[in-house]
Amino acid sequence: MISILGSTAIAAAAVSSLAGLIFLLRGRGRGDQRLIDRGHWAVIALFVAVTAAVVALEVALIGVDFSVRYVAANINRATPLLFRIIGLWGALEGSILLWAWVLAGYAALVAVRYRGRHQETVPLALAVLLGITSFFLLLMLGPANPFGRLSPAPPDGRGLNPLLANHPLMAVHPPFLYLGYVGFAVPYAFAVAALLSRTLRDEWMTVTRRWTVAAWSFLGAGIILGAWWSYEVLGWGGYWAWDPVENAAFMPWLVATAFLHSVMVQERRRLLRLWNHALIIVTFLLTIFGTFLTRSGILGSVHDFTQSLIGPLFLIFIGAVLVFSVGVLLLRRDEVRDTGSLPAYVSRESLFLLNNVVLLAIAATIFIGTTFPLLAEAVAGVKLTVGPPFFNRLTVPLAMALLVLMATATLLPWGPAPRGALRRFVGPGLLSAALVAVLSVAGVRGLTLGALAVIIFAAAAQLAEFHRGARAMGRAEGRPYPLALVALFSANRRRYAGYLAHLGLALALAGVAASSAYRTESDHTVSRGEAFSVPGYLLRYDGAALSRHPDKLVVAAAVSILPPTALEAVPSRPAAAVPALATLYPSERLYPQQRTPIPTPAVRSTWRGDLYLVLLAVGPDGSVVLKAITNPLVPWIWTGGLLMALAGLISIWPGRRG
Amino acid sequence: MAGTARLAGLFAVIVLVAAASPAPALARSSGLDEQVRAIASRLRCPVCQNESVADSPSELAAQMRALIRTKLEQGESPEAIVAYFVSRYGEWILLDPPRQGLGWILWTAPVVVLLVALAVAVAFIRRTVRPGEAAAERPESGGP
After folding, report:
1. What is residue A49's predicted lDDT score, i.e. its pLDDT?
2. Which of A290, A291, A346, B79 is the most exposed place for a label (fewest CB within 10 A)?
3. Which residues contact A400 (CB under 8 A, 6 or more apart)?
């Protein structure tokens, strides 16, 4: 029943999509406003239909309707409600449905918001969005049908991949990622529409700025939440492995970051028109490519992906988008000629160009590293691995260059540098020199010290700009400093939110640098009541307990954190008598759908860093093997990354001055 | 709940097996631990997706770490140990592909991209700079 409803909804969505395409293109061609209006309604009908399909699949998931193959393959009766709901993005077909739903939602928002405005461009932009949606609907009508039936229905399902059912972050990471990924379709559609209609030559990116920044923020948040999930669930004490799935999300974010900066040069100087079109096209292509990488099965093996039509269909779609976009650019090459000029060799404008060079070099490095093993296997039949050493060695120096550019471009104004501009470097320079000296006394050495020096300088430059602006405003308007700071921010939200995002990046990278350099890891075999120490902590193992849950069995070890000097003060005191500061419960979880237990780490976070415990094994005598990792400044990564995303959203929040 | 009991039994067996397999000994010498970790993080866990031998929780990775430790204790050099794993699994096992043959392309391509992009940007700046022409200048308030 549900699967008939769902399939009908998807068919209705496909019909709306096609009808909308015809209405919009014909209406625009004939200048018929009524047809265009119908096109807008068709977009809304499309959104309603895809929403109905999502509701149908959710009803099947929540109601454990195993006559739907997707439900039977991905959840079981023991799956808790939250994880039944998020089963929507637990596997391929549901993810494609989510993609289509988010895209239809964005298209409906565009249709509502721009009704009767930009008449030359919006119908074309909507047509582009409908074209993209049609591809995903086609996938669901064919090889990725979420409503395929299973007859007879099995008594129980297979259950969600335990790694996905193990942490609530799985409920938020994929939606944010998809909101970001798919969001770039809107500026892409407007970029193409502006070219085709020969209007909005410099305005398309201003029109779509909010959409672009929103997509960038969501994607950034999605990446950070994904890293956090991997840290909390996978039990290796790391957050980023340069896994192709991670890279697939990171590449469009990097190119979009380049785009967000270079559009400012176009806005001011009427330059980089072709370049900005190219950047948004590449960003959009990378989102499709990322979906292809993660959803076609090509990562398992190059030879896997021909098993299903999905991989080849994706490749054809990517090729079509590429040919279409480049074709439009060539067709309208006169429209994208630059008319402006740069005022000086050394200026914020030039630094933005270099920022683009570095961001693209990072993206290209990741692209090469991610695709190289696939190409080597497909073309030369050679199996090789490109792992973290490659990515780290090439991207870390580039990231440092990026930070230097970021600090310098923040301190220099637009246009030719005025006399005395160098003086702006003194304050942040002195502040960071002092902090670096402190770090050096504290024993930080070598490359880590160098990296932290660059990071601190980049952060200090942002703070200096806040300070300079607030002081000037306070003097001019006679306000006390804190109020001046607030007034400054709200009067120039876009600019200072940008600096806030820079600050977030510096925080996150400080976390990355510290946790990469000063992580410690040790294994301990301990019996009940035994105390052991890891750098910075005194711990005691208090015994293990088995508990049964509807969907899993859990063996948890209780590990108490003791005051670090508790045993030194009174050496004769038994460890068991010391009162605990806190207790952590690292566990092993056994899900019936998986043969091996999944170690689930326990993490205690403070602003200085994390203690990360993993239960490796439980012996017959009640002793356990624990892995203890200390990871300095890791919470800074989540804070800084989410601050960046938040800053993006702050900058576009509707208000007095967008 | 016979199913749960069976599960519990299975779980106990797995935990026992895990405990019986070469368990990491109490840190004998942290120097040795560091060396094992350094070598293990250069090798790919053969049964995992994109995890190093150092980070993988799999049994095979644990055995490989134990083997690395044994070989180090027998006085083998890190390079010899890595070469041993390459001879058994092929170069695929190296997370850091060698800088020769195909790997050479991999390592130079990003550098070439960077240099070309840099050259294009510098050429663009030289071509477009016209000092004194304050075209389309707007107040700074719209800043980044």
Report:
1. 98
2. B79
3. A450, A451, A454
Neighbours of A30 (CB within 10 A): 11
Residues B42, B92 share a domain: yes
Q: Would you say residue B2 lies in a domain?
A: no
Q: Report pLDDT digits (tens) over A583-619.
A: 999 999 998 877 778 889 999 999 999 999 999 889 8
Does A341 sit within 8 Å of B130, measured CB to CB?
yes
- Among A344, A386, A597, beta carbon nearest to B97: A386
Average per-residue pLDDT in chain A? 92
**Are the beta carbons of B113 and A360 separated by less than 8 Å?**
yes
Query: Do residues B81 and B27 share a domain?
Result: yes
Residue B40 belongs to a domain: yes
Domains held by chain B: number: 2
Q: Domain containing B49: what range?
A: 9-96
**Is A468 in CB contact (< 8 Å) with chain B?**
no
Reading the block at residue B110, the tokens are: 């990003």
User: What is the rounded CA–CA span in Å between residue A110 and residue A207?
Assistant: 11
B91 and B25 within one domain: yes
Closest alpha carbon within chain B to A496? B144
- Which residues on chain B are in Cβ contact (under 8 Å) with A357? 114, 117-118, 121
| Residue with tokens 């992906």, as numbered in its chain | A305
Same domain, B52 and B106: no
The Cα A346–Cα A413 span in angstroms is 10
**Using a CB-CB distance cutoff of 8 angstroms, which residues of chain B are in contact with residue A246?**
none
CB contact under 8 A, B131 and A343: yes
Contact at CB, B97 and A385, closer than 8 angstroms: yes
Could you confirm whether domain A1-160 is CATH 1.10.357?
no
Whether residue B123 is contained in a domain is answered as yes
Helix ranges restricted to H, A529-580: 566-569
pTM (two decimals)? 0.92
Q: Does residue B39 share a domain with residue B19?
A: yes
* Residue of chain B whose alpha carbon sits nearest to that of A266: B136
Give yes or no: residues B39 and B82 share one domain: yes
Section A238-256 average pLDDT = 95
Q: How far apart are CA A19 and CA A37, in angstroms?
A: 12
> Nearest CA to B68 among B46, B47, B83, B89?
B83
**B41 lies in some domain:** yes
Q: What is the CATH number of the domain that holds B58?
A: 1.10.8.640
**Distance, CA of A375 to CA of A380 (rounded, Å):** 8
8 A C-beta contact, residue B62 and residue B74: no
Burial class of residue A627, CB neighbours in 10 A (0-12, 13-18, 19+): buried
Q: Are residues B111 and B60 in the same domain?
A: no
Q: How far is CA A335 from the centre of its chain?
A: 33
Answer yes or no: do B18 and B88 share one domain: yes
A356 contacts in chain B (CB < 8 Å): 121
Q: What pLDDT shows up at residue A304? A: 60
> pLDDT band for position A203 (50/70/90)?
confident
Lowest mean pLDDT among A478-482, A547-551, B2-6: B2-6
Per-residue pLDDT tens digits for A341-363: 998 888 899 999 999 999 999 99
- Enumerate the residues of chain B whose CB falls inside 8 A of the CB of residue A524: 26-27
Of A174-183, A209-218, A417-426, A534-543, minimum mean pLDDT range: A417-426
Question: Which one of B44, B48, B55 would you mutate to disrupt binding with A, by most A Cβ within 10 Å of its Cβ?
Answer: B55
Helix (H) or strand (E) holding A532: strand A531-534
Q: Please give the single-letter amino acid code of residue A42.
A: A
Query: Which of B10, B34, B96 has the most A C-beta neighbours within 10 Å, making it the best mutation to test the interface with A?
Result: B96
Indicate the residue of A261, A357, A525 with minimum beta-carbon distance to B121: A357
- Checking ipTM against 0.85, whether it exceeds it is yes
Nearest to A364 among B30, B50, B110 (CB): B110
